[in-house]
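Hi support team,

I submitted a single chain yesterday and got back a structure, but I'm not sure I'm reading the token output correctly. Could someone confirm the output below corresponds to the sequence I sent? I've pasted both exactly as they appear in my results page.

Thanks,
R.
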Amino acid sequence: MSNSPTGGPPLAADPLTRAVLELDEYAAGFGWDRPPRLFALVDTAQLRAQEPGLARRLDLDAGDGAEADAGAGSAAAPAAQVSYTPIEQQELPEGQPLDEFLGTIAWPDAVGGCALTVERLMLPPTAEAQVPEGLDEAGLATWVAGHPGREEVRMTVGVLRDGTREAALRLRSKDAPTEVLTGPDLVPGLARALAATFD
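Hi R., thanks for writing in. Yes, this is the structure output for that exact sequence:
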């Protein structure tokens, strides 16, 4: 386990959306052509309370979130808003298909969710009718890589134990924070695979 991404979370109302956008920005800092990265999502307040040493190493100042003092000294104080701290896991094994690797994961109870960043080639919907018949997985990948309409995309997908999901898509041709698309159903297959790590 290595340090979490640093920097303030992007503006977003939903805690999972904030975490996913933070991870998209973190991955963007390393540039393109990078391997997948896997993160545990841990409740920040619980992390401070249960692992203060780790929280200090991750620079999680107790004063930087509303959850630090919400409810303290007042019965009328608003409920604390959950926030998630992404903690990067060890590198994914080379050569092992992503779905196979995800099938080997079991998270401890303290982990409230997980997220993955991965780069892929995407084709426009019109290209589906052009796919040659009889291609195996490697042949299809080669065909997609040579298609003139291909688009490189970085997908950041996060899921919580309760099934909540969110995704962020960043196109290499529109590599800017203001161009990132978000939504819970953008990458349903990967979201299902991540959710299955909590079964």
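A quick pointer for reading it: The first helix runs from residue 15 to 28. Let us know if anything else looks off.

Best,
Support desk
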